Amino acid sequence: MPDLLLIGGATDAMLARMEKRFTIHRLAETDLATQGEAITHVATNGHDGVPAAVMDALPNLKMVSCYGVGYDAIDTDACLARGILVSHTPDVLNAEVATTAVMLMLALYRNLLMDDAYVRAGTWESDGNAPLSRSPDGRKVGILGLGRIGLAIAEKLRAFDADISYHTRSRKDEPYRYYGDLEEMARDVDVLICITPGGASTRHLVNRAVIDALGPEGTLINVSRGSVVDETALVAALQEGRLGWAGLDVFEDEPRVPEALFDMSNVILLPHVGSATHETRAAMGALVVDNLLDHLDSGRVRTPVPECAALNA
Ligand code: NAP
Ligand code: 8YV
Fold first, then answer.
1. Taking the chain, what is the end-to-end CA distance rounded to the nearest angstrom?
2. Active site includes 41?
3. According to CATH, where is 3.40.50.720 located in the chain?
């Protein structure tokens, strides 16, 4: 059986299918110096990727299957140069991540966490009704990145009568207002939702100028990658009252989160759980294995990353 290197975890369902077709080596238990040559496939995830030292130790690597749609932790240029196919898990998580973005927006507008704390602390009984919150209905929402997930967010926000705009590098054939300039869009909206890929090309797209344009009445939601937002500028803006609210699922140096955010009641912090439900993770895991098995059977994969489309033809 071919040899597969497993970086990070895998569910029992994934392991059961993979074990039928591969000899599995777990990274922490594998001496790559002696076993690296045999390995032809890697299963990894969007956080761990494939470290350069691991790539170098696998001279016969043919395919990398990533658990996650974001693959910024994988050096696709290095893979392409060696003819290594990379697959990821697009689409199966669109609805879940969109729900996470909408959930953060609703929770911030309706003071969900503060109201829950109000009841638990007994304040309702001692002080009476909680302060009023703000309605999330009919808000102007700007989506940074109108791809698979961005479109799912826009669709879900229809239920809240949102006025949707978006910023991407190229205009899309979609019924939403396009802004070629992110700062201009930030100035015009109540809520800015980030859902681009990570990596060098989107690093700190949301900088101090964009945050200031969103302003003290504005809400920033980030479900993309921590690198998309200048976190130092974000923390400073929240501390100085230049930004109103923030809902963050991702951070620049996960799992480390700036402690300055911990005491802020206008901020909701999630541990990168945008897609983390049993149902969606099962679908992602199944696609990771489908890609591996397809590659064994045909030399092609079901969902290549765009950079590898030609290699998969
Ligand atoms: P996608 O379909 O490839 O969409 C990406 C969108 O971003 C496109 O509309 C693209 O349009 C835009 N974009 C790319 N670079 C840009 C730039 N420099 N400036 C402005 N817009 C840019 O990707 P997806 O499937 O929606 O996933 C998006 C990302 O979400 C993933 O890569 C991942 O990082 C993140 N994600 C996070 C979680 C989580 O758990 N929080 C879960 C899943 C995914 P143009 O090419 O026209 O610019
Ligand atoms: C996962 C994600 O948390 O798909 C992505 O890009 O960020 C999430 O779905 C992650 O990739 C799992 O490793």
1. 25
2. no
3. 3-91+278-308, 94-269
Instruction: Give the ligand 2 atom nearest the CA of 45.
Output: 13
Per-residue pLDDT tens for 199-227?
Answer: 999 999 999 999 999 999 999 999 999 99
Instruction: Note whether 95 and 274 are within 8 A (CB).
Output: no
pTM above 0.85, yes or no: yes
CA-nearest residue for atom 5, ligand 2, is: 68
Catalytic residue list contains 272: yes
The answer to whether 65 and 33 are in contact (CB under 8 A) is: no
What's the rounded Cα separation, in Å, for the pair 63 and 4? 10
307 is catalytic: no
The answer, yes or no, to whether any atom of ligand 2 lies below 6 A from the CB of 44, is no
What are 172-200's pLDDT values in tens digits? Answer: 999 999 999 999 999 999 999 999 999 99
Asked if residue 145 has its Cβ within 6 Å of ligand 1, the reply is yes
Which CATH architecture fits 94-269? 3-Layer(aba) Sandwich (3.40)
Please identify, by atom number, the ligand 2 atom nearest to the C-alpha of residue 48.
Answer: 13
CA distance 141 to 163: 6
44 Cβ closer than 6 Å to some ligand 1 atom: no
Does 3.30.465.10 match the CATH number of domain 3-91+278-308? no
The ligand placed nearest to the CA atom of residue 195 is 1
